[in-house]
Amino acid sequence: MRILLGLGTGDDSIHTLERIARRATAAGDEVSIVVGGPGPVTSIEELEERVRAELSGLDVDAEIRTLGADEDLGGYLVETAEREGFDRIVLEGGARSPMGKIQLSSTAEFVLLNATTSVTLVR
């Protein structure tokens, strides 16, 4: 299976990466990682460095693509998944409100509403 993993600058990015890397290793999936989204460029660069370090520790070979701070992660994921024939888009899954309802990031909401590819939210 070809998986396109979108990682933003949120706190759960590395947790999401770890879960997907373990699953990909066990299942023999091909993973491409897109790092980007809103936030300062230094945060994106720091996240990319952390992703590379985490991948080397997990012995996973994955392509890493880095977006600029002004590029839209959601739009990029939707377009790339369709254009390059990915089987699934994977994103961080958001949080729960005090009332127990899921709160999605604007990126997750955009991808869920616009992707024709299957989408998985990791919590």
UniProtKB/TrEMBL annotation:
InterPro entries (alphabetical): Rossmann-like_a/b/a_fold, UspA
Annotated SUPFAM superfamilies: Adenine nucleotide alpha hydrolases-like
Pfam families: Usp (PF00582)
UspA domain boundaries: 2-123
Domain of life of the source: Archaea
Annotated protein name in UniProt: Universal stress protein UspA
Organism for this UniProt entry: Halalkaliarchaeum desulfuricum
Gene (name only): uspA6
